[in-house]
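Hello,

I think I submitted the adenosine-5'-diphosphate job twice by accident. Can you confirm which output corresponds to this input? Input:
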Amino acid sequence: MKTFKNNMIMIKYVAKFCPLYIISSFFAIIASSVSSLIEVMIVEKVINLVLEEKADFNIIVKELILFFGILILSLIVKRIHYGYLVARNRHLWVKKIQRVMFEKAAKLDIASFDNPKEYDLFHRALTQGDLKGINTFDAFVHFLINVAKFFTIGIYIVIKDPLLLIAVVVQSTVAYIIQYKNNKMWYKTSKEMETNQRRYGYIKRVFYLEKYTCDIKTTNLPNLLIEKEEEVRVNLDKGYRDTENKGFLYNILEDITSQIVRNFAVYVYLMWKVYKNIINIASFAASVNAILRVTNYIYGVVWSMGRLRDNALYIDDFLWLMNYQPKVEDSGGKKLESTHPVIEIEHVGFKYPDQEEYVLQDINLKIEPREKIAIIGYNGAGKTTLIKLLLKFYHVSEGDLKIDGNSFLDVDEKEIRKMYVSLFQNFQIYSVSVLENVLLRSRKYETDDEVVWEALKKAGLYDKIMATEKKLDTIMTKEFDDKGLVLSGGEQQKLAIARVFAADTPIIILDEPTSSLDPISEYEINKKILKLYAEKTVILISHRLSTVVDANKIYMMEKGRIIEQGNHIQLMKKKGKYYEMFETQAHFYQESQ
Ligand code: ADP
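Support: Only one job matched these inputs. Its output is below.
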């Protein structure tokens, strides 16, 4: 039922995106049935004309022209479908579905990325989504073609001799049972092997993704992974071997029955009828041909049923993505009026979805327009989590977050996010032009180039880009351009920081994007941002205290709570945790100098 339901839903999608494909598939099904019927009938007709009726050669040719005329017509219909429309509609499908899936993917809640089960579904739907959808439809068409041929030739057989139906029924039952068992067994095995396949995929990724190359080259990681792969492989081999062995036995059983039922029994029965003059040799030949064909169609039907079942599984993933209802994305609809919003965090508590522990507890702070605030604390204190809440990546678990007095729950997340330019530790450089990397959109306004050059100047990357041949149009990395520009880690950071300088938003969030710069460059960049943007609100996150001394207000976090707050002088006077941390770091820098 589920297989049927899912495949029907998929057909609806195909009908929506490629309606012509449904129509041409329908004609292909009719043409396939007609051509197989004609092929069977020709044999009988020709033998009868030649041997029984001793017909004139011209008459035979005339009959043949009629048969072959119909055959050619149906072959042309099939050829137009398979040779022309299939490819075109597949491209059309990929183009349309991929766009829909990208849009869906962009709307996925961050929480779904944290949830391994949902992430798996999403990953499968998106990575297989392009062709798999149309493949499921093709398997359905294949199924219908075989069903149609089966009935067409089946009826022909019944008209010839209903007893022959016994062979057909026995053969179909055996084939169905065996294939059903086979499919079920393989389905179970592939479900059981999913975890091992995922692990295997991970190991492969580590070997081919660039970010792992350095460790692969310089450490024993390859051996470690190969050992892990062996473990995974042992499980996979064991899991698949049992299934393969059983499948092998099933197939032998099927071969034997088909030889006994389809060939031996049918031949004996039909020969007996010829000897008894019940049928002539023409009828014999046509019947043998029809039985052979009909059993092939049975295999076609059974095989496509297996495919339909497999596809139903994929369709589950596909439908999960298509029916996905984000909880955070697209929530709240209010627009914001002000251009310099006030943000209030009131008694906010937060735990990640499906987690027991609160990672933020009773957070209270108010961010006034144009304020420069710093959030500091050791790793794991909850600083980034707080920023994720400010970006409305998650709903709070307790308390409330407000922007200009409106609860985040009521405000459109796009309105909130457009207030910020944010830069994280794990910023990315994309294989697009320098200008596009900085603006994160394509060139739109006349002033774009000027803005980007200015931003590059402030970030300290002006000379480097100026020296390139295509300047702002230089493509970064090599995915889109063999001669793409590859920057060092520090330079990449500067390029990312240029995004902040180029942005026209009232609030800047920097979540340690400068951490891999040396402390002096980091200090200078932060100082520049604090100084240059008197008009903007700046939220700085850091665990290097030297970089935040100029902030108006510093919030020190520990274990999800704000434990101290004030400016640098106030906090130093307090001689609490901030003081301790500052002294330790100052000491360390002095020593290393
Ligand atoms: P910080 O930025 O101060 O280093 P984070 O806010 O990144 O700290 O993390 C705070 C705590 O939340 C950590 O204990 C971390 O393990 C946990 N955490 C972070 N991200 C997730 C997540 N996606 N799912 C579950 N726990 C998380």
